[in-house]
Design goal:
Helix content is 13%, strand content 43%. It has 122 residues and is mainly beta. The longest helix is centred in the C-terminal third of the chain and has 9 residues. The protein starts with 11 loop residues before the first strand and ends with a helix.
């Protein structure tokens, strides 16, 4: 009987388009973005998918090896990161391989956690 509780991570999300539901594999998602209380998943094919969960819920359900909660607006995928700029006040600015709605800033307090995460082996 193991005392370590392994987190259950989701492999896909059920998203709705028009009046149909379809599964969206989490591995296809480059980032999640929230604006006006709506969450959108952006995929590598350039599409946007409405997601019916909060970023808080998603950050608890996604594989933390693959996804990082950058700030209040973004959860980003490791494979989506192109490069990282130093930003004002010991913060970081993350650049993804596709355009994003606004700059992704990692706060000063999250920067050490992010650096550890980005260097961790999958």
């Amino acid at each position: 009987n193991s005392t370590i509780q392994r987190r259950h991570t989701i492999k896909s999300l059920l998203v709705m388009l028009a009046d149909k539901f379809y599964p969206l594999p989490v591995e296809d998602i480059l980032f999640f973005y929230t604006a006006n209380e709506k969450i959108t998943a952006y995929t590598s094919d350039g599409k946007r998918h409405p997601v019916d969960r909060t970023l808080d819920t998603l950050s608890e359900q996604l594989d933390t090896n693959c996804f990082f909660r950058a700030n209040r607006q973004f959860i980003i995928s490791r494979k989506a990161i192109r490069d990282i700029d130093l930003w004002f006040g010991n913060r970081l600015s993350v650049n993804l391989i596709i355009p994003v709605p606004e700059r992704i800033i990692i706060s000063k307090t999250k920067t050490p956690i992010f650096k550890k995460w980005i260097l961790a082996e999958e």
